[in-house]
Amino acid sequence: MAIINFKIIHVDYTKYRKEKDKQENCVKSVNYQTCRQNLNEAINVLI
User: Fold this and answer.
1) Which of 15, 16, 8 has its CA nearest to residue 36?
2) Residue 13 CB contacts under 8 Å (≥ 6 apart), including other chains
3) pLDDT in 10s for each residue of the chain, 47 residues
């Protein structure tokens, strides 16, 4: 089993967001701190 941390998730999400922006012809900022806060909120809801 691989260890997953926030940095790995952020890198993968950034790649995903860039591809999605290309398809939709728009640009959205992928801020590390904002992504981290959103992920923490989602995890807290699940716990």
Assistant:
1) 8
2) 30, 35
3) 678 787 887 788 888 888 888 888 876 666 777 777 777 887 777 66
Is the Cβ–Cβ distance between 30 and 14 less than 8 Å?
yes
Tell me the two tokens of residue 37: 């806060």
What are φ and ψ of residue 28, in 5° steps?
-125, 145
Q: Is the pTM of this model over 0.85?
A: no
| DSSP characters over 18-34 | HHHHHHHT------HHH
d(CA 47, CA 27): 32
Q: Which two tokens stand for residue 39?
A: 């992920």
